Amino acid sequence: MHLTILTGARFGWIFVILQIIIIYTIFLLIQKRVESRRKK
Amino acid sequence: MAQKREVWKTHTGMILAMIGTEVGLGNIWRFPYLCGRHGGSAFLIPYLVLLFGIGIFAMMAEWVIGRYSRKDPLGAFEKIKFPKGREVGAWGIIGPFFLYAYYIVITSWVLFFIIASFAGLYFGKDTQEFFLSFLSSPYIFLFHLAAVAITSGILALGVQKGIEKACKFMIPALFILLIIVTIRSLTLPGASAGVEFYMRPRLGALLNPAAWIAALGQIFFTLSLGMGAMIIYGSYLKDKWGIPTNAVACALGNTSASILAGFAIFPAAFALGLGSAVSGSQSIGLTFLVLPKVFERMPAGWLFGGLFFLLLAFGALSSAISIQEPSIAWLDEEVGWKRKRSALFTGLIMWLMGLPFILNGYVMGGLGEKLALLSKMDIIIGQLALPLFGLLAIVGMGWVMKEKGFQELHKNARHKFGKWIRPWMRIVVPSATILIFILSLITVLEERGVIKRILPVVKIREFVPLGIGPSTVIMIILATGLVWGGCIFLTTRAIITEKRKEKGI
Predict the structure, then answer these.
(1) Tens of pLDDT, residues B411-444
(2) Which residues contact B42 (CB under 8 A, 6 or more apart)?
(3) Which of A24, A31, A33, A37 to mutate to test the interface with B (most CBs of B within 10 A)?
(4) Are B353 and A16 an interchain contact pair (Cβ–Cβ within 8 Å)?
(5) How far apart are CA B495 and CA B505, in angstroms?
(6) Cys-Cys with B505: which of B186, B200, B310, B500 at CB 3.0–4.6 Å?
């Protein structure tokens, strides 16, 4: 049961959307750091 | 810190890299199916009309943005002063991340089927059970890792030594293998029924809007638009290379691979009694469930099956490379990482992101359940996000760059477009792309039962072989001659022109 949720086999839509949000957030964080480094 | 930005070393290498991006799994598993379904060789009419009317213009828009900015998709949208350019351009980095995550999983299946074919592992077995057992086996992790390692390894070597060299080997090899498998397929007794199904023109099918919709969708996806790949590959174009002629040459090369694929698949399938199974299936079903049956029945099928999956792997890997490249270029240029480090990092993240798709297949039971997560991601990224990002690139060139965009398009071009190019690029091409997005959305909602079916449905009538008549022969000669002849002529002429320019003649 836990495995099916963890692997996205259950609640797949939530899993897919969460994955997109997480990666986009990580990306924005890196981007912010790059920009602040540029300004310095 | 600023190092010299790489560009494609040779013109031939650039053409092959571009064709490598375009030719992928869709050429082999979807185009022949669409041809068979929407009027045989008559399908080439909407396909070529829309390819040259819409598709290559959308592709040229991405090349223009890439070459003008000489940056990764994020930097490119900022440089052309697109509103909220960095946020919009970010999708040219993020989108390919997700696309790669599941595309590479399918590529890893192809890698496994190369070995499975050469070793005859699926011979005498039920192909669905065989495929299911592979999805549930630990070997899949190994093949997934191998696929990620191959693309990351090639990309770590750089644009010229990595991508260009790999494509210079993989793409000619793909065509040679495709020709070998096609010859085998066409020389089987009874192959003519397959040729007839694939190429017999059924002009009546063109009256159905579904044929035109299918052609437009196929063109958009086969040209690798909206995934940042064409922007980043375009940014490696030399200034002296004219965009229009080269775009036409690449599009023709891509189309010739699609047409050949049908000749490799249908004649063999019909000759070996699997015509109805092949003509009724596409994508995963065709490639991993039906084609193994065809190779099992074929004399020396282990060899031709192995070669077929090898060529499929070349197509898939060369496309996967182009999908991974935008994020590497971004880390390289924006974050300031070394290329090897960027390739390793993106490879690691993309490998991690691919694991849920594999674990989903590993844990669940039935075939549909095993592929559930993969198909959901494909809906969001492949069917919805890509057309949207593609649209933004077209708008970026036509409406944001304005005259600068058209100047870049015509820079050093042998053939320049007339004044009609402006309204065409600004209105017709974006409208067609919006149409693709709306149709994709409707298809997704229809398939999931959210809305009632509104798009026209095409039923395949029972196929009755009539024997190859003169009209079929004429259409085959016209279709293949037009595409290959055009491809060879344009590519050769473009290469000769570049050589002359280099020598200063």
Answers:
(1) 988 888 989 999 999 999 999 989 888 888 888 8
(2) B201, B202, B203, B205, B206, B475
(3) A31
(4) no
(5) 14
(6) B500
Ranges under pLDDT 70 in chain A: 1-10
What tens digit of pLDDT does each residue of B81-134 get?
Answer: 999 998 889 889 988 988 999 899 999 999 999 999 999 999 999 988 999 999
Contacts of B335 in chain A (CB under 8 A): 30, 34
Residue of chain B with shortest Cα separation from A9: B360
Q: Is B172 on the interface with A (CB under 8 A)?
A: no
Q: Is residue B486 scored above 80 in pLDDT?
A: no
Per the structure block, which two tokens stand in for B474? 């004429």
Report whether B75 contacts B334 (CB < 8 A).
yes
Give contacts of B 85-104 with A, CB under 8 A: 86, 90, 93-94, 97-98
Q: Which residues of chain B lie closer than 8 angstroms to A34, CB-CB?
A: 334-335
Q: What share of chain A is helix, strand, coil (3-state, %, to 5)?
A: 80, 0, 20
CATH topology assigned to domain B11-503: Amino acid/polyamine transporter I (1.20.1740)
So where are chain B's domains? 11-503
